[in-house]
Amino acid sequence: MTKKMFEFKTKTIVATGLGAALFTLLFMYVKIPTGIPSTDIQTAYGIGAFFASLFGPVAGGLIALIGHALSDSIQYGAAWWSWVIASGVSCFVTGLIYPKLHVEEGEFGKKDILRFNLYQVAANMIAWIGIAPVLDIVIYAEPPELVFTQGIVSAISNSISAGVIGSLLLAVYSKTRSKKGSLKKEG
Q: Can you tell me where the transmembrane regions are (predicted)?
């Protein structure tokens, strides 16, 4: 059975809602300050990458977009859209790994870990070094030195968060799934 990257089933909708709720809570309460203004190591990106890898780019993008927007709105009264968009892009791009992973079939070996991490690091670099700073400058007229520093720190910290937390969750989850061909009919 081939995975359809942009298919949106009921379980994907449920996972998106659950993922967005978890992302929101982690984004608000489980973070580590970096010393750079408004820039934290966010554990939420590990959850976003995990869900994106299991349910695809649309679910991943929506989880991060909704979760970040809700978190900002609850905490600050309004979303900081340049970073909300970058969050959505980072998890959307990470979700492009979806058809290449077979976690649901109980597989998540060294090659899969490497492949997952190549995707999520690339996604974080695109989102935080490219999209977030440029949108900060265009939308909010923020100083380039500040936003590119924030972007680089975010790219690194979010890559570490997604890499460690996402890889661990995918490895543990794969162990709960039956491997393909592991169930044999008794004769």
A: 12-32, 44-66, 78-98, 118-141, 147-173
Write out pLDDT tens, residues 90-117.
999 999 999 999 999 999 999 999 999 9
- DSSP letters, 81-112, are HHHHHHHHHHHHHHGGGGGG--GGGT---HHH
Q: Write out pLDDT tens, residues 118-168.
A: 999 999 999 999 999 999 999 999 999 999 999 999 999 999 999 999 999
- Statement: the pTM of the whole predicted model exceeds 0.85: yes
Dihedral sign for Cα atoms in the order 9, 10, 11, 14: positive
Total domain count, the chain: 1
Length of the chain equals: 187
* Residue at 104 is within a domain: yes
Instruction: Say which DSSP state 78 is in.
Output: S
Is 68 within the bounds of a domain? yes
Contacts of 185 (CB under 8 A, 6+ apart): none
Is position 82 within any domain? Answer: yes
Domain that holds residue 132: 15-29+41-175
Q: CA-CA distance, 101 to 81, in Å (whole number)?
A: 31
How deeply is 129 buried, as exposed, middle or buried, from its count of CB atoms within 10 A (0-12, 13-18, 19+)?
Answer: middle
The CATH number of the domain holding residue 98 is: 1.10.1760.20
182 belongs to a structural domain: no
